[in-house]
Amino acid sequence: DAARAPDRVRALARSVLVGLLKALKGDDAERATRLRVVALEAVAPWAPWLVVDSNLAPRTCRALCGLLCRVVEPAPEEADDERVAMVARETRLQRDAIEALRAVLAHTRDLRVDARGDETVEAHALRRCYAAFARDVAGKGASAQKARKAFASVALVQDALAGFYEDAGADAAYRTAFVAVRQLALKVRSALATRAPDDVAQVLSWKFLHCARLWARCVCGNAAPERLGELAFPLCQTLFGALELAAAPSKAPFRLHCVRCLHDVAAATECFVPTTKPLLATLDECSRGGGGGGDGRGGVDDGGDFGAELDCGDKRDASARASLGREALEQLLDFLELHRYAPALPELALVPLVALKKLATSGTR
Predict the structure, then answer these.
(1) pTM above 0.85, yes or no
(2) Which residue of 18, 63, 96, 144 sits 20 to 30 Å from the alpha carbon of 190, by its own alpha carbon?
């Protein structure tokens, strides 16, 4: 038992853990990266000894969060072997950091962080991980090109954080998630109140969407009321506020991303989330301009993919409208599928059916 070990053994363990911590916080040189690999492998066996010093556990968590929450750009197709090996090495570091952090939390989750009063190491790690994710991963998509390069890292870190929240205690998970969702809600409320271009741009961004997706995943994985189920309503209200800011036709891809999150939350919590309005608005926009969508030869262009887009900009040609309309229609069918066994299904389906019939009639004229 590390807590009952002799002072001499505890001092030796502390010196080893301090050495590991220094190795984890090294620079980005290749030698330091190789040293990090060795240090990460040693964290799990030494994790039970983190109790010898109350400051070691939170410091180790912060170092591991820094290794996990960063963008590793994928190697281009024409990249040489050295570049491919570097990307593989950096990705391995991220995955090893996930396992190391999981081992640290398994032994220290209930310890108190001296500098934070009643905050536990588990709550501290969850809070710092999300802050690092929002700042260093989700926030790296300032341009469309940079956002695409960050997608793989965003997915990896989102998977890791969703797993941490599923394993976390109910109190630590709810406290940290509540604060984060509230921050998103305040950002949306400010943008709705001022309509200032800078405030609106902060909401209609990849950073906001990645963070909202993360919390949608966390709520879906912890949908019980005693876990994060109580956050489903404020999260949905936040997304509806973002949808109101994305009323412009060029923001249709952003709306579809938000609606997908809403459908995931509705399916996990078995709650009614009305999403037909933004979907029908997108379908109506796609039906305008003539052509009905296609490749100019009577067919439909399946090459248009807005999964990696937030703003379709000037892409309002027939193929772009067809791609957006197809996605909106699929999500409308998902909405009806979610409520197929609900007694109110006839009433829920009436408005979409009337709107679709109207669109189909106008498209044949």
Answers:
(1) yes
(2) 144
Q: Residue 6: exposed, middle, or buried by beta-carbon count in 10 A (0-12, 13-18, 19+)?
A: exposed
Which alpha helices (H) appear in the chain, and where do they start and end? Answer: 7-24, 30-46, 56-68, 81-108, 121-132, 144-167, 170-194, 197-203, 206-221, 232-245, 252-269, 276-287, 318-338, 345-363
53 in Cβ contact with 114 (< 8 Å): no
- Residue 112 tokens read as 């108190």
String of DSSP letters for 218-284? HHHHT-STTTTGGGHHHHHHHHHHHHHHT-SGGGHHHHHHHHHHHHHHHHHHT-----HHHHHHHHH
Percent of the chain topping pLDDT 90: 38
**Spatial contact of 206 and 164, defined as CB atoms under 8 Å apart:** no
The angle formed by the CA atoms of residues 124, 266 and 356, to the nearest 5 degrees, is 140
Q: Is the CB of residue 283 less than 8 Å from the CB of residue 328?
A: yes
Q: Encoding tokens for residue 213? A: 């997706």
